């Protein structure tokens, strides 16, 4: 494996963790509700599945767009990643209380969609570049599943201490990758 391939995989791992931070921070709050371990396992699995489906749809759309915009694809992808990261950072400072949906039935689907929407946009920007799709999707799904589980389990132990900071960290990582694509 070449140094370039290793660097690409490491970058994808950091990006996967950054995308999973949103699920982690929301899961902290959800974990403070009385949630059984079986439900925690299911919630993490569904969130992971959506973190595979949403960026896959974004990658497909991004690849279709990249054929149309050609030379502007890299610039668009970098700007999109930076914008998503900045939005995550700014939303962390939004102090309005959020009503958490119960992680059951349709509430679980809405929860999974809400924490995976940013992964659609990241998938779109990755589709504009030439990323290894299967590796990216598996890393996104695994990271979000694990971070959701960790968030819910920690939420059972502590009360909202890390929520905002994890979202800021995730947003900062995405901003950094966007700047790296633009200027690196």
UniProtKB/TrEMBL annotation:
Name under which the protein is recorded: Putative manganese efflux pump MntP
Function: Probably functions as a manganese efflux pump.
Localization per record: Cell membrane
UniProt cross-references to PANTHER family, sorted A to Z: MANGANESE EFFLUX PUMP MNTP-RELATED
Location (main, coarse): membrane
Keyword Secreted attributed: no
Similarity-based family: Belongs to the MntP (TC 9.B.29) family.
Species the sequence originates in: Lentibacillus salinarum
UniProt KW tRNA processing keyword: no
Membrane topology: Multi-pass membrane protein
Lineage: Bacteria, Bacillati, Bacillota, Bacilli, Bacillales
Keywords assigned: Cell membrane, Ion transport, Manganese, Membrane, Transmembrane, Transmembrane helix, Transport
Membrane-spanning residues: 6-28, 40-66, 72-93, 105-128, 134-155, 162-183
InterPro entries reported for this sequence: Mntp/YtaF, Put_MntP
